[in-house]
Design a protein that fits this description.
Length: about 120
């Protein structure tokens, strides 16, 4: 279990809230509160996404029809931030790139493709 402060830190460092500490804390608080209310961790993405959506709706103006009007669901980058942190994906990427560069011959090329 993570505290509100720990979750907010992850969202600030890896998520969509890198310049909005209040929003990161608000989202983190909503997630922790909902888990406490249920008495258990989230068991499906629909519930997780709904809590994130509701916590951000008033500030971001997201609506239930977010994908219809061309906006990504706000939970997408929130979940990505948690995954990046938990799986240490940036550290793995750095290590992989260092290994690849050691194998390249002079003038060789390496391609890295990442998505946000």
């Amino acid at each position: 279990n993570a505290s509100v402060e720990e979750l907010a830190w992850v969202l600030l460092k890896y998520g969509p809230d890198s310049d909005e500490p209040l929003l990161a804390e608000r989202t983190a608080q909503a997630l922790v509160d909902e888990q406490a209310r249920r008495g258990r961790p989230f068991t499906n993405m629909k519930d997780f996404a709904e809590v994130v959506l509701q916590s951000r709706a008033a500030i971001d103006g997201f609506e239930e029809v977010h994908t219809v009007n061309g906006r990504d669901h706000p939970a997408r980058l929130t979940l990505q931030a948690l995954r990046l942190f938990m799986n240490q994906e940036l550290e793995e990427l750095r290590a992989g790139m260092e290994g690849a560069f050691k194998l390249l011959v002079p003038g060789g090329r390496s391609v890295v493709c990442v998505f946000k």
